[in-house]
Amino acid sequence: MPSILRGQRYSFMVNHIMKAILWDMDGTIVNTEHLWGDATYALAEEMGKPLIPEVRALTIGGTQEGTISLLSNYAGIPLTDASMQHWKGRIRSIMGELLAGDIEFRPQIPEILHEAHTEGLPMALVTNTTRDLTDIALASMYRKISEETFTFTLCGDEVDTGKPAPDIYLEAARRMRCKPDECLVVEDSSTGMTAAFTAGCRVIGIPVEEETVVPEEVTALDMLRPGAADLTGMGVKDLRNIYLQLG
C-alpha cells in the first residue's frame, strides 16, 4: 500500500476511536427511574393535585428545579424561592431514603463496566441528579462494582445549567481531555439525549419508559440492534462498533 494511503488510513482510524464512555445514571446504569417516579407522584400529591402519566413523562431525566417548577405549575400553586427550597428538601428526603436501599443495575451494566475498567477505557458518570443524592446512589452501587470504575462523576448541580442544556456533557468531555465527538454517551431520557447530542457527542438512546421519545437526531439502540431493549449480551467491543456506526 502506498505510504500516502497508509497515512490516510491511519488518520481515519485515529479520528474514529472511542476515547471515553459517558454514562447517564438513573434509568441507564441503575434501575432507579421508577423510584424517581414514586417520588414525583408523592410530591404532586403533597402539592394537592394527583399526577397523570403524561405529566410524569415530562419530568424524566430533568433537574430538581425543572421538576418542581413543572409540578407547581401543574398544581396551580405559586412557587417562591422559599417554597422551591422546601420542595427540594422533600425530594432529597424521599429519594435519599429510596436510593440508600439495594439499587438494581440495568442488564449487563456491571459486566460492561468491569470489562471497560479492566481495559483502561475512561468512563464517567454524568447525571442530572444532585451531588448529595448521587453520592448516596454511588455508595449502593459500589457494593457491586469497583470504586475506581469511573474516572470521575459529574452532577447536575455542578454545572451552570443541567440537561437538556449541553453544559454537563461539554464539561465531561473537557475533563476527559477529549473532543465531544470522541465520547460515546449512553442515555435513556429525551432530556439526556438532547443534552449529549447538542454537545456534539455520539449518543445511543436506550429508553426505559414507554413514554420516552427519542429525538430525531439520536439513534435508538433497537435501530442498530433490532429487538434489543437493553445491553444484554453485549460488551465493550459492541459499544465500540456502535460508536463507529454513529459516526
From TrEMBL:
It is an enzyme of class 3 (hydrolase). Signal peptide: none annotated. Its EC number is 3.1.3.-. PROSITE patterns: COF_1 (PS01228). GO terms for molecular function: hydrolase activity. The keyword Cell membrane does not apply. InterPro entries: HAD-like_sf (IPR036412), HAD-SF_hydro_IA (IPR006439), HAD_2 (IPR041492), HAD_sf (IPR023214), PGP-like_dom2 (IPR023198). The keyword Electron transport does not apply. PANTHER family: 2-DEOXYGLUCOSE-6-PHOSPHATE PHOSPHATASE 2, PSEUDOURIDINE-5'-PHOSPHATASE. NCBIfam families: HAD-SF-IA-v3. It comes from Corynebacterium urogenitale. It comes from the Bacteria. Keywords: Hydrolase. This is Phosphorylated carbohydrates phosphatase.
